[in-house]
Amino acid sequence: MEQQPNPQPNSITVQVPTVEQVAAKRSFVPISFGAVIFLFFLTFFDLKCTNGQHLASVSGFNLVTGTRVENPNQGDSIISVGGEGDKGKIPPNIWAILAFGAAIAGLVVFVKKHPKESFYGMLLGGGGALSMLILRMHMTTNSGQMAQMGVVLDVKFAFWLAFLGFVVAGAISYFRWRQPAAVQPPPAPPVYGDYLSQQQPGGGQHGGQW
Asked: Could you write out the DSSP letters of every residue in 61-88?
């Protein structure tokens, strides 16, 4: 009895997109900036007790405008910034303001189709991502003070999505800036009549008499 050969497993091919393919995704840039603006109205940080009890939530927009956070159980402030009159008040954070402003500016640049949209998108995306990282470092520094009061800072998923949105917008803009030929339409072919006029002297007038 003839033995049948064992079937070979199907191979999976993963295609890495080329630079031209990434640069062609222009619509992803304003979508990413718009998503970042939306995510700023969601919770970026949660304040919890060491036993897991939820105390307060802080959105990205709260960090842009400033807010007040108090302990609902003790009626006292969770964070103290400045003097006695500033207990529980989180002032506007410059890094949150810069990140939020970068998202708005990036969206406006691409909606208006600025001639240098790729260059500005690269700067605004990179600057926004850097501002988000510095914002997290700033909040982590304040969490040391909160830890002495039994409060833990929890970074929420919306924060990282906003950071990712800046990275995507900046990366695509960078590739579009480096590959202008990949994002510009090819020149239109010359019209046949124009071609004939270029070959004849006198700007298209027939030479000689019929």
From this structure: HHHHH-EE-B-TTTSSBS-B-SSGGGBT
Q: Which residue intervals of the chain are DSSP H helices?
A: 19-23, 28-39, 60-65, 94-111, 117-147, 157-178, 180-183, 192-199
Query: Looking at the 3D structure of the chain, how many domains does it have?
Result: 1
pLDDT by position in tens, the chain (length 210): 556 656 555 667 666 666 566 667 788 899 999 999 999 999 999 888 877 788 888 999 999 998 887 655 554 445 544 444 455 677 899 999 999 999 999 999 999 988 888 899 999 999 999 999 999 998 888 766 666 666 788 899 999 999 999 999 999 999 888 876 555 544 556 655 555 555 555 554 454 444
Question: Model pTM?
Answer: 0.70
Any domain includes 146: yes
d(C-alpha 155, C-alpha 142), whole Å: 13
Neighbouring C-beta atoms of residue 155, cutoff 10 Å: 15
Range of the domain at 130: 19-45+93-182
| Among 107, 109, 96, residue whose Cα is nearest residue 35 | 107
